[in-house]
Amino acid sequence: MMKARILICDDEEGIRRYLQKMFLAKEYDVETFADGTSLLARLEGGTDGDADILLQDVRMPDMDGIEVLQRVKRLRPTLPVVVMTAFGTIDAAVEAIKLGAYDYVTKPFPKEKILGLLENALQLDLLMKENRVLKEELSRPDTPDNIIFTSEKFRKVYELTVQVAASDANILVLGESGTGKELIAGAVHYNSTRRGKRFLSINCAALSDTLLESQLFGHVRGAFTGAITTQKGLLEEADGGTLFLDEIGDVSAAVQAKLLRVIQEREFIPVGATKARSVDIRFVAATNKDLAKEVEAGRFREDLYYRLNVITIALPPLRERREDIEPLASHFLAKYARRIRKDIRGFTPEALQSLECYRWPGNVRELENVIERAAILTRGDLVTPDVLPIRPRDDVSPRRPDNLLVSLEEMEREHIERVLRQTGFHKSRSAEILGISRKTLDRKIAEYALAMPGQAGGAAMEN
C-alpha cells in the first residue's frame, strides 16, 4: 500500500525533528518546512508525491498561520490540516477549524495523542477520497472516454452505436458474456435524444419470474403476500429514457408476452392493478444466446424477437481485438490502484505478454477481475506475471495443437470448469466471476456434464 505523505510546517527545528523521527519510525513519508512561504511553494509547484496530511503551526514569524491555512485550502481544498498551537493561542486554533482545519493539538503533545489524531485524519481522508472516486465512476457516462478501445474492429462497433443512437429504434446487442454489452447500451442512451432521462438496466436471468415481473411492472399494495406498499417498476421509472434488458434470452414465455404488449401498445399494467399506464421507453436488449435458434426451437417469441431486433449490434470477443488488451488493462490497473491507494505504474514486459497471449474466454469482465487481483497482490510499482492467475496451460489445452480451431461451446466449457476449480467449486462465487446467474451456471454445468466434487452421476454440489 502507498505510504502516507505527511507535511510538517513549524518554525521550531526541535518540533520538526521530533515529529519527523516519530513519523519515519511508523514508515510514513515526511517533508518538513520551516515557514509558510516554503510550504506554499511546495504545494504550488506540484512536486513529486502528493500530500496526504499537513501538520501546521498556528503561529509562525514570516506569515501568520491563519493566512497560510487559507492559502493552503485554496490550493488543496481536500487536504486535511491539523493545527499545532501553544496553550495561549487556542482561540487561533478554533478559528483555524472554522476555516477548514481537521483538528488542533496543543503543545507539548504526547506521542500517542499526535499519532492517534494523525491516523484518524488519514483514515477519514482515505474514506473521502474513495467516496469521490466512486462518485466520479458512477457519474461518468458511457462515452469514448469510458469505453476503452484502439482496435479497428471495435471502432466500427462504436461508430455504429453512435449512428443508431440518433434513431429511436429498439436495439439487440449480441456478444459473449463479458464483452461489454451494458456499456454499449449505455452509450446508445447517452448519445441519443433521451440522454436527459434515466438509463436503467435489469439482468433478466438473475431473477425469478415473479420477482422479474414485479421489478419491471411494479405492483400495487396488496398485489401479493408481502406487498405492503405500492411500488413503481422499472418501466415507470425509465419513462422517457432507456431500459436495458440484459440476458433477454432467459425470460419466460409469460413475461415475454407482457413485454411484447409494452413494446407494441406503449402501455403496461402494474401487478395487481386493473388500469393500464402509458409509457415511452426505448428498449435495448442483450443476450449471449442465438435468439434466432431460440425462436426456431419455440423458446422465444418470434414477434418479440422482431420487435427487439430492429437494429443489431454484434460485439467481438476480446480475443478478436487483442490491440485493446493493453489499454483496457492499463485502465483497470489505474482504477483499482487508485481505490486501494497503491502506486503501481504499469506492467513488466513479461506480464503484458502474458495478458496479450491469453485467449480471454471471459472477455473484458475476466480481464478486469484478473487486473483487480493483480493490483491487490502487487508489491512493487509494476505488475509481474506471478500475480496473474493465467498461464499457458490455462489458455491452450494439451489435448490439441495451438493452430486448431475450437468451438465457442468448447471454450465456454473449459472456462467455466477453470473458474469452478479456482473458486473451489463454489457455484455462487463462480457465477459472480462469470457474470451469469446461479440458475444459468447450474444449467451450463448440466449441459456440459461438468464433474463436481462429491457428486454422483452428475448431481450438482450445493454451495
What report would you give on this structure?
31% of the residues are buried. Mean pLDDT is 84; it is low at 140-145, 392-406 and 456-461. Helix 6 crosses helix 7, helix 13 crosses helix 15 (363-377) and helix 18 packs across helix 19 (438-447). The longest helix is centred in the first third of the chain and has 29 residues, at 111-139. The chain starts with a strand and ends in a 16-residue tail after the last helix. 46% of the residues lie in helices and 12% in strands. With 463 residues, the chain is an alpha/beta fold. The strands form 4 sheets. The chain has a 5-stranded parallel sheet, with helices on both faces. One of its GO terms (molecular function) is sequence-specific DNA binding. It comes from Geobacter metallireducens. It is found in: Cytoplasm.
